[in-house]
Amino acid sequence: MIRDNTEGIRDVKNKKVLIVGMGLSGVAAARLLSDFNADVRITDSRDELDLAENIMQLPDGVTIETGRHSSVMVDGIDMVIVSPGVSSDNPIITKARGHDIPVISEIELAYRFTANIPWIAITGTNGKSTTTTLIDLMLRRAGYNIITGGNLGMPLCSAIKDHYSSNSKERLDYIVSEISSFQLETIKTFRPHISIVLNITPDHLDRYRDMGEYIRAKKNIIRNMTEDDSLILNFQDPVVRTFEEETTARTYFFSIRPSHDGISAFLRNGSIYINGKEIISVNDMALKGVHNIENVMAATLASMLAGAGLESMRDVLISFSGLEHRLEYVDRIESVEFYNDSKGTNIGAVIKSVESFDHSVVLILGGKDKGSDFKDLIPYIKERVKAVVAMGECKEKVVKQLKDEVQVVKAEDMRDAVNKAFERAKPSGVVLLSPGCASFDMFDSFEHRGQVFKEEVYRIRGR
Predict the structure, then answer these.
(1) Which positions ≥6 away from 180 have C-beta within 8 Å?
(2) Is the same domain home to 370 and 305?
């Protein structure tokens, strides 16, 4: 049983709670709430067969609805937990708000169970997972006892339940969490002790009406921060830079440009400096790419503020080469190199990946459209890309927007895309899978898409 140590926990006991969405975070919330004798209901629009594995993980006593979201599920409810994939204009959410029933995210719920533990929260359009992982590794190397989760890896409600259910007598020093805009939409009391905003570029415009709405969701990360908290911002991002104006938190900027007044972390002569002290040469880092220099600066600055020493941070930067599906080197065949950046699900991510190469890139683009404008790629394509292979649901849009700037060919599936990209990259060059789109038109997830890409590269190697 989890210790009852905050007012937020006491508010949950014996309450009627509706969870909308039966994915990983919804199941995690149900399991945590059940430990406090909450009367839990959970609803999902998918059918029972698709949800069979998730249903098996639910505790006894949870009321389950599948195949629809019935408005009667809201009747008599004290609180609604909404999963990240559920839109805020879902009718069941609208009804709850119309009856003044609190609607919160799984992240907000997890925070209420751990408000006495400092949180480090990372958000941004790109680079969240790498930065979160770096902080996790640095703090663990420095000897801190932490939980890491959220939008990356295990839902935090699961991690928190597992920690306390194990009767661990160790104090938790920090909770490190990657936070998406979807999760930030429905926070109420969530207040990180250290927050990072890496960048904000167009994304999820299939969910948000415009960029302003997307930015407002991201800005919720600073909503409850005070002068006792620390906010780390990317000075080079004009949108992110303005966040300083709306918070009383202590602000620290990082920049890939040489230092000037007010910049805590910067790049100079090929080395990263923090507060005027050289941390590491970029050549000594296992991570490559300009975008990863920004991620490293943000992670190192946050870890220093949390108390990690220089030696533990340097050890991680020398050894950590990156995450799977994030500009991941796959193989070299006949002087052609293959890179898997399946996590590149928006145009900003594609730009950062393309910028990691000088020239001769054959770019595999396409998937389920998120409202992306592929024309934003044109300046980078002109400099570095020799051909584009378009695939997936929005391949016709890719062709239409880019055909006048670069050779664009269409592919029917991943095998066709890899084959065509390989032929166009010869005699030497780079095949880069960085789709700029979601994966759900052809694959279960971006991880599945990246794995299929690698299997097709290995097939060529075997052939």
Answers:
(1) 84, 123, 128, 151
(2) no
Q: pTM of the prediction?
A: 0.81
Report how many domains make up the chain. 3
Residue 396 belongs to a domain with what CATH number? 3.90.190.20
Which domain does 142 fall in, by range?
108-319
Do residues 10 and 4 touch, judged by C-beta distance below 8 A?
yes
**Under-70 pLDDT residues of the chain:** 1-11, 166-169, 259-260, 463
Q: Name the maximum alpha-carbon separation found in the chain.
A: 67
Q: Give the C-alpha separation, 308 to 424, whole Å.
A: 47
Residues 298 and 356 grouped into a single domain: no
Q: Give CA separation, 261 vs 50, 180, 274, in Å.
A: 55, 31, 13
Q: From the centroid of its chain, how far is CA 420? A: 30
Residues 256 and 267 sit within 8 Å (Cβ to Cβ)? yes
Tokens representing residue 27 in the block: 């199941």
Q: Are residues 92 and 118 in the same domain?
A: no
My answer on whether 241 and 120 are in the same domain is yes
* Last residue in a domain, options 101, 132, 162: 101
- How does 313-339 read in b/e, with b if 16+ C-beta sit within 10 Å? bbebbeebebbebbbbebeebeebbbb
Q: Which two tokens stand for residue 384?
A: 């570095």
Does the residue 163 lie in any domain?
Answer: yes
- Report d(CA 461, CA 463) in Å as an integer: 5
- Output the pLDDT for position 71: 87
Both structure tokens of 96: 């709850």
pLDDT score at 167: 63
Inter-CA distances, 244 with 177, 298, 366, Å: 21, 16, 36
How far apart CA 351 and CA 357 sit, in angstroms, is: 11
CA distances to 90, 410, 446 from 441, in Å: 22, 16, 11
127 closest CA partner among 316, 452, 346: 346
Q: d(Cα 308, Cα 312) in Å, to the nearest integer?
A: 7
Considering the domain architecture, whether residues 304 and 438 belong to the same structural domain is answered as: no
